[in-house]
Amino acid sequence: MTKKTILTGDRTTGPLHLGHYAGSLRNRLSFQETHNQFLLLADMQALTDNAHDIRKVRRSVLQVAIDYLAVGIDPEKTSICLQSHLPALGELSMLYLNFVSLARLERNPTIKDEIRSRGFGRSIPAGFACYPAAQAADITAFKAEVVPVGEDQAPILEQTNELARKINAAAGREVLPVAKAIIPSAGRMPGIDGRAKMSKSGGNSIPLSASRRELKAAVNAMYTDENHLQVSDPGKVEGNVVFTFLDAFDPDKATIDDLKAHYRRGGLGDGMLKKRLLGILEDLLGPVRERRAELEKDPDFVRDVIREGTARAREVTQRTRDEVFEAIGMFAL
Ligand code: TRP
């Protein structure tokens, strides 16, 4: 049986953090064993709201690739590819933009939320408003059948499938498969300050590259329960960042349940919990940090990995591009 194709990607806007690990990197490690996996370094999509800082977008390409390799993505099993070097994606994007209205793009809940939260108003970059069509191009160009994305990206997948159906209708046959979104069960990791989302720009993230000292400082700064002033006080588990992280990373569920009960009753201090969490995170990030340091010393190797992955991706995406243009009846030369 041939393996199903799976595509995910990250905007290259900065190094990845523990939220990425819990929500997606971890799953990609198992997917590479069972699927034909492509990881897209989405530097073009990064530009849609970072055109003022191309330097950051460029530098992040190697950083994100290093993060992938350091956590255990195997370039023999997974193709790591660079979006801006896959011209078929841009060509399909331009095509798809003719199959979607501006109104529909603006109505996309993900886009709507982001326009609101960033206060773009009418000065929204056109590329940003159009990114659902561009992401549809990414996904369909690989003929990805499985697309693991965060919950906030579900409407983008819906719109991708809407476009795939329109192209299939224009072609009169099924050129493009419909993609299935997989939303990770781990959910989104909160920031260390307790805010809903961990993000570098929010200043509440723990980068995968964190040194031992940085890791310790971050765990010590984690929000727990502001009313848990004395060890003997009963404490709250819900919304307590330390417990959220223990749930995500501590394999010993039975002990965590006991600790939760003890914390709720009172008599369990934050310090003990934080020490436990620090040990677990250090076990996870220690080896990542070491591999990261080695890869940092060998950027040519990382570049080669991206080059090879991109070459593989170019073949696949170019083939789809040709097939789609022909199928809908564009002039063939
Ligand atoms: N929009 C995705 C994100 O912000 C990144 C991305 C770009 C992507 N192209 C993709 C994800 C294709 C899945 C498939 O996380």
Spell the H/E element sequence.
EHEHHEHHHHHEHEHHHHH
Largest sheet: 3 strands, parallel
Radius of gyration, in Å, reads 22 Å
Adjacency order of strands in the biggest sheet: 1-2-3
Question: What number of domains?
Answer: 2
Distance between the termini: 35 Å
Helix content: 55-70%
CATH architecture of the largest domain: 3-Layer(aba) Sandwich
Q: Helical stretch count?
A: 14
CATH superfamily annotation of the largest domain: HUPs
Approximate shape: globular
CATH class of the largest domain, please? Answer: Alpha Beta
Which keywords apply here?
mainly alpha; Rossmann fold; Tyrosyl-Transfer RNA Synthetase; 2 domains; 3-stranded parallel sheet; two-stranded parallel sheet; 14 helices; 5 strands; 8% strand; binds tryptophan
Topology:
Elements: E1 5-11, H1 18-34, E2 36-42, H2 43-47, H3 54-71, E3 78-82, H4 87-96, H5 102-107, H6 109-118, H7 126-129, H8 131-141, E4 146-148, H9 154-171, E5 180-182, H10 212-220, H11 241-249, H12 253-265, H13 270-296, H14 299-327
Parallel strand pairs: 1-2, 2-3, 4-5
Bound molecules: tryptophan.
